[in-house]
Amino acid sequence: MSVKTQAINRSAMSFYPSRAFLPSGSPKATYHIWLTHKVLPCVRYNVPYITGDEINALSRVVTANAIDSLGPHTVACERWLEARLECSKALLTLSATAALEQAVLLCELEPGDEVIMPSFTFVSTANAVALRGAVPVFVDVAGGDDLNLDPEAVRRSVTDKTKAIIVVHYGGKACNMDAIMLVAEEHQLTVIEDAAQAFLSTYNGKYLGTIGHIGCLSFHYTKNTICGEGGALLVNDPKFHFQAVIVREKGTNRTEFMLGKICKYEWLCLGSSYVPSELCAAFLLPQLHDAEEVTRRRRLICTAYTNLLAPLAAQCLLTIPKPTEASADGVNGAGGGPTHGNGHLFAVLFPSPEARQAAQAAMAERNIQCLTHFVPLHLSEGGKSQWNNTLACADNRVRIENQRRRIAAGDEEDDDDGMYLDPEE
Q1: Distance between CA atoms of 288 and 359, rounded to whole angstroms?
Q2: How far apart are CA 164 and CA 188, in angstroms?
Q3: Helices 96-106 and 123-130, interaxial angle, to 10°?
């Protein structure tokens, strides 16, 4: 069986530059391969990026019999995150879900306390709060071409029971963090950034996950930078630094014991086992070294998608969500730096469920996977049965149920009208 690479495929080499793709100039450049016999091609919604160095890193850890936690690869990953993101403390975790649970533990919530969050998010955002006996308060998206939570709905939802706000940067595009931080400051609330999809995205020159008091990242295998299962807690408020380390180690001071600072360790507070294996960290470290190049490529692909779909958007056949525009003053007066997404996914909205279903069917005929996304939590079975929660929205209409509603693929009764592609494809 013979193959030919992208480099000798003249039609491909002429197509890519015309759609804003540029040669990477990297010796690790990835090339598509076409088999000469007939193979039914499939464009998958996600193909994990592999640098090629992961296997060597894993081999070194296994050979050294050093697969325990808090080893040199874990430390190196945390130092890389702190330096690159300009974060005062980064802690690797088992997942973004684990990071969210750890963040909520740091807020010391009591049963009945309320935490404001978008309904349009993954269930881990709400689970972290519910596990502490607190109440998720769901708010609507901003609307139009903004799929992030509405700051005005957040403001209106604050009560004397509100303790925190969890923002979710959907698809790697920033929420209006200026407005959110202003509400938090006015009411002395903790802001947790669920930046699971937003690694290396920026808002006004600051990396998402580093603007709120605490940030949560994901390195799940569907994300831009991966280690199979993994995440990170970004602790931006110094008052949480010491407690974050305690909570991560099951509520003990084991980390100090491992560093030789104390002769024995003990249980100090509530916590859980959030420390990842050194194997995960060894896989992640070369991924971090390539993260900027991966982000650059994905942004180029999103630009190409935007350009190619612009004629359809001009005819109002679909809507392409746009990134949040930061204010001129910036977060806490920090000044106006760039606001960029990370190309994690490319979402489009359709004017009706029928239009979305027709587009998805046409893609399927060409073996192109396009998925719909989250079930809004206030509409899900768990949300309705546990809290019977209404949805706060700026114009007193449940907008998320019409044009902006997203339902998970496979629900035969859905009336969803959005879908997305992974830009890596």
Answers
A1: 35
A2: 9
A3: 40
Q: Copy the structure tokens of residue 416.
A: 């969803």
| Cα atoms in the 13 Å half-sphere on the side-chain side of 387 | 23
3-state secondary structure of 104: helix
Phi, psi of 252 (to 5 degrees): -120, 170
**CA of residue 243 relative to chain centroid, distance:** 24
2 vs 136: CA distance, rounded Å: 56
Residue 343 and residue 299: Cα distance in Å, rounded? 5
Q: What pLDDT is attached to residue 413?
A: 35
Strands 190-194 and 162-168: parallel
Nearest CA to 374 out of 120, 174, 118 is that of 120
Specify the pairing of strand 346-349 against strand 206-207. Answer: unpaired
pLDDT recorded at residue 68: 83
In this prediction, residue 101 carries a pLDDT of 97
Calpha distance 373→420 (Å, rounded): 8
In this prediction, residue 313 carries a pLDDT of 93
The strand pairing partners of 192, in sequence order, are 166, 214
Task: Report, as ranges of residue numbers, the positions in the chain whose pLDDT lies below 70.
Answer: 1-40, 323-336, 387-390, 392-425
- Count of CB atoms situated within 10 Å of the CB of 224: 27
Q: Which residues contact 355 (CB under 8 A, 6 or more apart)?
A: 317, 318, 417
Say what the pLDDT of residue 35 is. Answer: 41
**Which positions ≥6 away from 195 have C-beta within 8 Å?**
169, 201, 208, 209, 215, 216, 217, 234
Locate the DSSP E strands across 159-244: 162-168, 190-194, 202-203, 206-207, 214-218, 231-235
pLDDT at 7: 53
- Please give the model's pTM, rounded to 2 decimal places: 0.83
Residue 111's CB is within 10 A of a number of other CB atoms, namely 8
Cα–chain-centroid distance for residue 248?
21
Position 241 scores a pLDDT of 96
Q: Which pLDDT score, from 0 to 100, does residue 381 have?
A: 84
Position 271 scores a pLDDT of 92
Q: How far does CA 21 lie from the centroid of its chain?
A: 24
CA 387 to mean position of chain CA atoms: 26
